[in-house]
Design brief:
Helix content is 26%, strand content 11%. With 70 residues, the protein is α+β, with helices and mostly antiparallel strands. It starts with 11 loop residues before the first strand and ends with a strand.
Length: 70
């Protein structure tokens, strides 16, 4: 990223966390780990698209069993 002032928005949960295989796909459109009919997986891909279109970045930090921060 270019030098400059940026805003950081982080969301943290204390859920089950994500392994590297899930993190690698988390921003894919329609990817979800939820059972059929309980979610579309659009949220993370929309966040990724907005950040990239705005010149920003998105990162995920997660530990299995401890939750995640995006």
């Amino acid at each position: 990223m270019q030098a400059g002032e940026y805003m950081v928005v982080s969301v943290t949960d204390t859920g089950t966390g994500m392994g590297p295989d899930v993190i690698a796909r988390a921003f894919d459109p329609f990817f979800t780990t939820k059972p059929l009919g309980q979610g579309t997986g659009l949220g993370p891909s929309m966040i990724y698209g907005f950040a990239k279109q705005s010149g920003g970045q998105v990162r995920i930090y997660s530990e299995v069993g401890r939750g995640a921060t995006t």
